[in-house]
Amino acid sequence: MGSLGVLVTELTKALASGKVYRVSVKEWREKRSLSQNSFQHVIYAELSKCLIGRNYPEWNEKKVKENLKNKFLGWIDKEFTDIVTGEVTIKSELVSTSGLDVGDAYHYTTQIIEWSESIGCHIKIPAKCEYRDLQEKQDR
Question: Could you tell me if residue 62 is inside a domain?
């Protein structure tokens, strides 16, 4: 069965439950690459070093990453169901960078770099990296 057949089958099953759904269709785009992920972690490390050097010793890479995700990606609500009681609770969690596509990851990285510059922390962009390639492609 092709993609359309699977989609129709799954939609039919979902609608049979009687629940109301909101459906959105987005163009397929590749997930962010390992290169993009690696560069983001280089940025977190550089920012951490910069902030620690400015007497913010608690700003390790993990804290930098979480705060940048909060600032630029935001939060989503996630539903959890207790298997015994059936009780449903909703908790907010930071948007995960692993779910970003190539374009969204580029935009997120650009926001971080621009914000870093605004607070006086310079992020070096390697001459040969996917981010630089995407940047040049964008400038054409």
Answer: yes
Nearest to 102 by CA among 47, 26, 45, 35: 35
pLDDT tens for 94-135 read: 999 999 999 999 999 999 999 999 999 999 999 898 999 988
- Residues of the chain short of pLDDT 50, as ranges, are none
Q: Is 18 a member of any domain?
A: no
We report the CATH number of the domain holding residue 37 as 1.10.3790
CA torsion angle 77 47 107 134 (round to 10): -140
Question: pTM (2 decimals)?
Answer: 0.76
Domain that residue 67 falls in:
29-139
State both tokens at 103: 């374009």
Would you say 75 and 65 are in contact if contact means Cβ atoms under 8 Å apart? no
